[in-house]
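Here is one chain, start to finish.
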Amino acid sequence: MNFPFYIARRYLFSKKSTHAINIISGISVAGVAVATMALVVTLSVFNGFHDLVASFFTQMDPQLKVLPVRGKTAAADDPLLVKMRQLPEIDVATDALEDQALAVYGDRQMMVKVKGVDDNFDRLTHIREILEGDGEFDLHAADIDYGIPGLGIAYQLGLGYTYTEPLKIFAPRRQGQVNVANPMDGFVEDELFSPGVVFCMKQGKYDKHYILTSIAFTRRLFDQEGRLSSLELRLKPGSDFERVKSELQQIGGDRFRVLDRYEQQDDTFRIMKVEKLLAYIFLTFILVIACFNIIGSLSMLIIDKRDDVVTLRNLGASDRQITRVFLFEGRMISAIGAVVGIAVGLLLCWLQQVYGLVRLGASEGNFVVNAYPVSVHPTDVLLIFLTVIAVGFVSVWYPVRYFSRRLLR
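Its structure:
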């Protein structure tokens, strides 16, 4: 057995001549454990919100979206896009065209994003799961175009699930000059009718800004016949996602870029990653402060064991071995605190997942979820353990060597 480790273990668990040293050692372990537990719980809560937001976006976002690198639109019959549609792994391909427009209903109006899609959009996404109302997912019937607004738009315009009057949509004309005598002549006007449903993603980015309709309507409204702003794809079950995405990007070259669901919402997830990183840094700083307790515990232990050090030297122990005894002592405190903190943190995360102990609001239904979401990622647990061990090892190295030189001579 490693001699310094054996002595350090005896020192850690044996009763000291001064009872305060045992108490300080216990406080050191508790301090490291609490900081570690806070890291586990906090990062798991961030993971929970990340997964929750991702689940909302995937209900309307396609698995893969192909966007033109230059300009807002591209020809729908572009040879590269045709080649992408023909890949054997592609299950559903939908042309989409979206742009901003003015929606007017009665005496209310607001700027919206009108997104036109093909009829197979419900096969591409989980749009049917977020529809509310008595109607069905319909984009057009004969020469009538339907508009499915987000719940936020329906509320602000006073539409309800079913609006009785047509919803007027205005978009600037792409060509020609504005007639000063008749400014409305500079806009294209069209109408959408209600299919009896609205969609609710519980995300303001969509619910308060988007109206879904047929792509024929948006092409006519925005004067973009034969054009699309994105090609949205769904793969067949069992397809190698990363390989297909890479193949699509190779086909698109420098003319098109291929985005997965996370890349489509890059701004949102980037903010969440930054917040998680900042929380990790701040809690690690608290962990460093907690490790000062270990320094105090070791300094008192070194003073308490000065007679033992003389005995160890007489038995042939070198100064390096004696120093390693106290280094192992500090590292064992860090390791025990890390293990205990991770165990308690995982227990709290499990209790939150099962019982929802910490709630978001006093009453049900005020938020998307009633309790803080928690998701434990093994990579985070490993990172936390390595962080605690590294901080503990570094924090005791210099103080132990300093006190050893000063007090054990």
